[in-house]
Amino acid sequence: MNSLLKQISEKAIELADFEFTQEQTENKWLGTKPASENEIQLTEKRLGIDFPTDFKQFMSITNGFSAPNDIEPTFEPINKIDFLKNIDSFIIETYSLNGIENIGIQLEKSIIVGGINQEQYFLLIPPNSTNEKWKYWKFANWHPGEEEHENLESYFKEVLSFLNETIESEKN
């Protein structure tokens, strides 16, 4: 995943569609220092969950990751991660209406790991039972419904692919 995040950083900075700090531009890196194992464990204890392995790996590479463009969320530092209901309870109420209450149920238990105070969120949704898997959702009010990803790597591969396509289309 480290290589994937480096490629996203380099492509996003090359594209320059978004404002990056001087440090990010010079280092060609949109991440920060890694989260410590202790910081990850304290957050898991605070939330009463065990994060999926790939998310722990991500946080051990970078404790937060800037949005590479204006359509992806910024991944939050470990100390800002919380349940969505504690950050934006209104969106849960909105999606708890008849006909879409299944989305509201998922949002109610979701953990926001990206996009606080942005137009789109990145959510981790814990499984209901041991035989279920974590869900990975990119979620935005203006984009009807959720955009589910198999895992973090598949999400970041999609982001990199989009950046590559954008660079190619600008060349033509």
Automatic annotation (TrEMBL):
UniProt-listed Pfam families: SMI1_KNR4
Domain Knr4/Smi1-like: 34-158
Family annotation (InterPro entries): Knr4/Smi1-like_dom, Knr4/Smi1-like_sf
Domain of life: Bacteria
Gene3D superfamilies in UniProt: SMI1/KNR4-like
SUPFAM superfamilies associated with the record: SMI1/KNR4-like
Entry protein name: SMI1/KNR4 family protein
Lineage: Bacteria, Pseudomonadati, Bacteroidota, Flavobacteriia, Flavobacteriales
